[in-house]
Amino acid sequence: MDFIVGLAEGFIGMFQAGGETFVGLVTGIIPLLIVLITAVNSVIKFVGEERITIFAQKLTKNIILRYTLFPVVAVFFLTNPMAYTFGKFLPERQKPAFYDSAVSFVHPITGLFPHANPAELFVYTGVAAGLTTLGMSLGPLAVMYFITGIVVILIRGIVTELITVNMMKKQGMLDSDSK
């Protein structure tokens, strides 16, 4: 009998935990995202979408800056997950690669700038706990995470863009001369 009661309580407890998570989202991340989206859209309207698009196009003409500086700026200023909206300023063929770069950078940035992705800070702090226990400084770890992250997002961005362009050409979405 105790087994059945425990099973029933565990079953309803699962839904109670889901409800608590949902309430946490409704009172936490969802309003934050709405305010961030509103603020970013307001800045875009104030500055002018054409100016921001021109700035983004100039910045992203260079493939290295496109998959290093552009995602770093997006993640630093807009944080995760709002950073991905920067992709709207890029041509379709570059959007998947930008997303790949930005999403790959939300962890490496947390050591130096925890505001960029506080929900995933546990990854960095888990590794950092070992160094702290050994009495070692966390500064070099944070810097190495950051630098390694930039190298990784550059490689991922370039590879993803090459794959995307190749697939778009095969599907007739790009002519063979455009890139």
Automatic annotation (TrEMBL):
The chain crosses the membrane at residues 22-44, 64-84, 142-163. GO terms for biological process: phosphoenolpyruvate-dependent sugar phosphotransferase system. Pfam families: EII-GUT. It comes from Salimicrobium halophilum. Keywords: Membrane, Transmembrane, Transmembrane helix. NCBIfam families: EII-GUT (TIGR00821). This is PTS system, glucitol/sorbitol-specific IIC component. One of its GO terms (cellular component) is membrane. InterPro entries: PTS_IID_sorb.
